[in-house]
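Note to self: keep these together.
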Amino acid sequence: MSRFGRFLFKLLFCLLAFAIVACGSKPTPVATPTAPAIVTVTGLDTTVFFPVPKPVDAEGGSDTALLVGELILIDNCLRINDKNSDTSYLPIWPPDFTVMFDEHNVIKINNGIGETVASPGYEISTGGGEVPDVHVNQQIRDACSGPYWVIGEWVSPPISIED
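Structure:
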């Protein structure tokens, strides 16, 4: 076998070995629950706990459940009173959402593009789902009791509950 033939044989062997390794079984990504962190924002006389998850690069849950209710502030914790039950959920907001106090000391929740999507005293609707307490870190459980609701990708704009 010539030198070129041996080189070609080795090259083909390496390419075949690479293809076998590259096309072999890969582990399926599993969505590991991430413990949300609490962001605290202080206005004139109020502190608000605002839990957000760390972004994850894995397949996760979906926004298949619907939650509609009034956003309220109880003991520095924003909650959504489900209008279809007696349940009050602590929302865990998407990682790109922010909380702030406006110039009138009103709490505003903004989505990833800066639109106000929630404010206490208004009704909101959102996709997402309830998450077991074990998926929420102790810092949040100490500050705000459950049950917990992971907000999906969307939240409707606030609607006055007086309308």
